[in-house]
Amino acid sequence: MTPRHVCALVLLVAGIAVLLLAALGLVVLRRPYGRLHALTPATTLGAPLVCLALAVQTGPGRSAVKLLIIGVLIAAGGPVTTMAVGRATAQADGLVERDSPQ
User: Fold this and answer.
1) CA 53 to CA 95: how far, in whole Å?
2) Which helix H or strand E contains 84, and what residues bound it?
3) How far apart are the C-alpha atoms of 90 and 15, rounded to whole Å?
4) How far is CA 98 from the centre of its chain?
């Protein structure tokens, strides 16, 4: 095994562990706000770690750059999506007014 393969394997195992813990949180937590909190580590840490592991495994090149861009987009877009879903849920529950800037 090469050092690059070992590094990719460690990153992949860490990413999959985060994703599995997030999935467990989705099963255990019942309220939508708790489920949103469980999804946040999956989008900010789990998926980018998997993308990074795949980029390390493929080696330098265009494929690795594409994988890194995908990981960055997931890491940046995940919290924004979580906030949007949380706000829509709060509006549906009547906790926040629809036209409120909060």
Assistant:
1) 41
2) helix 62-93
3) 30
4) 27
The answer to whether the Cα torsion of 10, 16, 75, 56 is positive or negative is positive
Residue whose pair of structure tokens reads 């690795």 in the numeric block: 64
Measured between alpha carbons, how far is 80 from 74 in angstroms, rounded to an integer? Answer: 10
- The sign one gets for the Cα dihedral 40, 86, 83, 54 is positive
Tens-digit pLDDT profile for residues 18-64: 999 999 998 999 888 888 888 888 889 999 999 999 999 999 999 99
Q: What is the mean pLDDT of the chain?
A: 90
Residue 17 structure tokens: 């562990």
Radius of gyration for the alpha carbons in the chain, expressed in angstroms and rounded: 17
